[in-house]
Amino acid sequence: EGSAASPEDEWVRIDFSGSQELPGSLQLTPLPSGGVRAAATEVRVETDQGYKDSPIRPDGSPQEVAAPAGPAAWLKVTILKSQQGRPGLTGAGFT
């Protein structure tokens, strides 16, 4: 869960213990807005192969997002855009 005040540019990164072959899309589940939290509406999936940006629905449903296909030593997901719930309550994030 990111900052309640400004979720844009919040990120999570995973460093793999070895190189992993990643497909061209991944399933991502954002935390739902529910009117009480900011919710991501666009994300960037980045690896050492580059990055791909995807719009996402802020409804908390699992969804496919584009990813750079190929071997990767790490994976990073960044919130690029969001919609605000009620300011100051709780931040955007992923499950």
Give the beta-strand count: 6
Assess the beta-strand content as a share of residues: over 45%
Give the C-alpha Rg: 13 Å
Question: Shape from CA axes?
Answer: elongated
Features:
95 residues; mainly beta; two-stranded antiparallel ribbon; single chain
Give a verbal description of the structure.
This protein has 95 residues and is mainly β. The protein has a domain at 24-75. The protein is 0% helix and 52% strand. The protein is built from no helices and 6 strands. It has strands at residues 11-22, 25-28, 39-47, 50-55, 63-66, 70-83. Strands 1-6-3-4 form a 4-stranded antiparallel β-sheet, with no helix packed on it. It has a two-stranded antiparallel sheet with strand order 2-5.
Task: Break the fold down into its secondary structure elements and pairings.
Layout: E1 11-22, E2 25-28, E3 39-47, E4 50-55, E5 63-66, E6 70-83
Antiparallel strand pairs: 1-6, 2-5, 3-4, 3-6
Describe, in short, the structure shown:
The protein is built from no helices and six strands. The protein has 95 residues and is mostly beta strands. The strands form two sheets. The chain has a four-stranded antiparallel sheet, with no helix packed on it.
